[in-house]
Amino acid sequence: MTREPRSRSGQSRRPGRAGRDAPAADDTPIIHGVVPPRDVLLRFIADHPEQASKREIAKAFGLKGEARVELKALLKSFEEDGLLEKRRKSLVRPGALPPVAVLDITTRDVDGELIGRPAEWLDDAGVAPAVLIRQSGGPRKDKAPVAGLGDRVLAKIFPAKERGGPAYTGRVIKVLDKKKNSGMGVFRSMPGGNGRILPIDRRGEEMDVDAEFTAGAKDGDLVEIDVVRIGRFGLPRAQIKGVIGSVASEKAISMIAIHAHGIPYIFPDAVIREAEAAGPASMSHREDWRSLPLITIDPADAKDHDDAVHAEPDTSPDNPGGVIVTVAIADVSYYVRPKSALDREALKRGNSVYFPDRVVPMLPERISNDLCSLKEGVDRPALAVRMVFSKEGRKAGHTFHRVMMKSAAKLSYQQAQAAIDGAPDDKTGPILETILKPLWEAYRIMTIGRNRRQPLELDMPERKILLKPDGTVDRVFVPPRLDAHKLIEEMMIQANVSAAETLEKKKQVLVYRVHDAPSLAKQETLREFLQTLDISLVKGGNMRSNHFNGVLAKAKDTPFEQMVNQMVLRSQSQAIYSPENIGHFGLNLMKYAHFTSPIRRYADLIVHRALVGSLGLGEGGITPDEEAALDDIAAEISTFERRAMAAERDTVDRLIAHHLAARLGEEFDGRVSGVTKAGLFVTLPEYGADGFVPISMLGQDYFIYDEAHQALSGEKTGLGYRLGDEVRVKLAEAVPLAGALRFDMVSEGRKMPTAVRSFHKSGRRKGSAPRRQPGTRPPRGRR
Fold it and tell me: Could you tell me which residue ranges the S1 motif domain spans (predicted)?
């Protein structure tokens, strides 16, 4: 499991107000008095909307005379190409927000920050961009308007400085309309027809509902509410505006997360009509590959199949011992065209969201499970890449093709692996020698290249929840990590690399999957921690993934192996989407773009369109409007990805809390997964569930927090707990709707190492005093 990299040379600089000595976003030198290159000019307009008039642009770059005439012509060409549009006296990118806008604050992000969107937005302009609301600060903070969830505000708009979140930040100028707070809860009937709303999150509070505002809700229903009154005394009062269904129903737990995180889950009628009207793809601009025995290898319960693979020896005398690997991906770009209803809805969702009991798809089933799914024995359109590898695992070349294919077999990971391991069945037996063994030989060769590249190799097992028919938890288990999984993963990675390489060679803008190197601050925190285990980590700004692999190797098969894996994971940056390529630190790749899952990720659909357009492969290519909006699109889909991760995690937490709610007072084996000033996070390996042990429940001693050692240790006894310690805990409280577990510590603390004990004598470090406040959950990430 890896996160995903940032420019090794640091942030790029951009033209400032003077513009005299400032290089461009890509470090292209600016010559004062000379019209800048097209990309530099577009970047300046995007980053400086307040200076986007012709006069201000000329001033910023010091343009006079003939240079101003040239600038005017260039800006006019941008308008004709659809890269810019004129609003009053300013030029903006299509779909860009003006310097001041009216926003509706609609939700919060995973960190609790307010998110707003334009109050007015045309449907054909795509999804309305998100704006991270910054409450005004500084010396006049007490006089600044304070906005809240549901408010309509007038805000000053700024391009976001940080990648991976909303494309804009906004500072509230004025609150135009204080709207009713809304939310969700569980309805409980009370005597007299009144009701009470129980909260579904950890920080919520109960609310009363008068009989006339219950909207027919029954006891145990999950409901949407508006808060109508908050007084100085008594509980807040609410009215129910919608009944979602019984909280005891099979899919109520995931519905809580869907509503709480604002995930679109109902397709509009126009989207369904467009999907149902779609028909089979034509052979126009396609090669006929139906005789090539491509196969799909997926989870046994997969309903959509967006990738198929094939491998064969390379017969070229120039590549002895080499192999040809073919990866074919569902041609979603043929069906989902820019600015169509399907496209607008797909961008609004950003990605499919996977819960233990359901999937919220990015595209309707007619597209995802039918027309684009590479079904066995059925003609299906695909975008394919054919890659040539030497016997040393080096990629010698690749080509892209738009094809019509027919899958020769649909296999599960376990089915394919069993055949290779000597237990073929009726389906895998006939294709073992001709299809499966060549695939495994290609994987063996590709592994040579992977080992040479040394991507980050974290050992963080992924747990899976198996549900009963009624939607409750049956068991939690760690699926075995098979070579079949690794084979598909490596072939997909190489296909993604090929896509990025081709588009760069064509000078085609695209959305990269990037993963920054760990920040120097995070490196130092990890370095201090590792020193307590006598493990060293190199210093300097040229950190590579193999440096972390060396650390993980030293910790392997030691009592602190899991602890080191967790700390290395926490040190990593978050992988995001960006039109600016900074490489992928975790995979140790300099060119990487998501290409292999367009059914479930909008980023991949953008890459498909870019390939179709730049290679002249027919209809469905990327448009100038899309190219101009890639910054915003990348920011949006990065935000939606984090939204999906948070919703998936919350659902798992709630399911496990429901599962364990009947076992209060029981003891469990756990492992310390987080250490804070307020207490310990403890994970139950058997269930993959996290719970909290408040510092007050650790014992009678005065416990002191040592960040470097990730420990809480008693001031008098010297006994304490460190990250990774195996402990015994008792379940004291479970709040299923909030997904919260609280434990009491049963295990006695162990004697802290000398370094930790000497820490007490030398005085507490800044911020070491314990405080009774909640900590934060250890971060998680995705490749």
Answer: 665-746
